[in-house]
Amino acid sequence: MKLGLINSAFAQANKGTKFGLEQTKRIGFDTVDIFTDPLDINAKERKLIKSTCATLKLPIKSICCVAVGLIDFNPSVARFHVERVKRYLDLCKEFGCDNLLLVIGEYIWQQEVIPPSEQWKTGVANVREIGNYAKKLGLEIAIELEPFDLSLVNSVDTMLRFLDDVALPNVLANCDISHLHLVRVPPKEVKRLTGRIAHVHLSDCNGKTHGDLPPGRGVTPIKRYLAAIRDTGFDRTVSIELEYSPQPDKIVEWVTEAYERTDAIMRELDCRS
Fold first, then answer.
1. Can you list the residues of the chain whose pLDDT is less than 50?
2. Model pTM?
């Protein structure tokens, strides 16, 4: 497996794009994932990301996209988000990515006003449309399993059901290790996703709330989950996700700590390539 970093770790610490990418390479990461929005990013920033990564020989594996409007009950809102995600896919193609990491959102109004089945159908239909668009570009979509009660995809069961309903070979799962722990998915359950994992996120948490901490700062059995993912035959990219460091001025140390601890786990499991 390759070890990557989502560049939001540096961006949320108010560090410049070039600085973050250069530190990512210097620390030792194999790849990087980009957190940006194609409707906000300008041509100069796009060029900076692409040229800096090329110079550093730091492949961009994924772009992260939160598109909760894909399940909005207003057709105009859903249509906007379908087109917005297509622009994300265009940017993935431009950057040479493997996949688009997609967060599709949550049921609204506690599932009491709009039937949950209707929001599910809307999500499936819209992801199928963007999945077909991605297929034309030679890209995959990785659906993230979210650890929240009302998320559409918040368990192995709902992930498999969603992927089956979309029914496209290039729409696959993202395994987020701390999310799996937060929703109490035993590591042995990961084998049910064999052949259907496109991407992996790795971080730690306190076992109760979303955290995105460096490994070792929480209680997530990261080694057991990563071993289970390895045993599915997955041999692609594991990206460390670190959000909102409590000490932004020490973000380099924060990221370095996460890298060193993850690298050690991967080498113990003999899965770092």
1. none
2. 0.96
